[in-house]
Please model this.
Amino acid sequence: MSIPFRLLLPTQLCDEMFAQAQAELPNECCGQLAGSVDADGLARVLKRYPLINTAASPIKYLADGLDLFTAARDMRERGIDLLAIYHSHPTSDPVPSKTDREQSFYGSQVVNLIISMKAGTPVMRGWWLTETGHTEAEWELT
Model:
């Protein structure tokens, strides 16, 4: 898949992500989004994979290994690709932290969506991450 791409996220899946972030307070939530990238560079999200945050922490997340395996197997069976990773920041802005950048295992191959719950109402931004920096990613609700 060519990167970067523009991520198209169905409103229903976004609402589910926000509900997960709210339900998992005061801890961070995490999950993955999968779909396909068209020849025109539009990445259409088709499936959401909510993951368990085994760190159970308000300042970091560690996705459950079995959840990751199950999601990867399902993506392979459906013929879809990992497009984005999401997690929440319960008390801070939707901007990547140093830890987010350092622990970005997929690097700049996927969009990293961060949901801020700081103001009570979810606010989400997307990012391309590297170990040393970040660039805002293009995404929109569909």
Q: What stands out?
A: Residues 6-141 form a domain with the Cytidine Deaminase; domain 2 fold (CATH 3.40.140.10). The chain has one domain: 6-141.
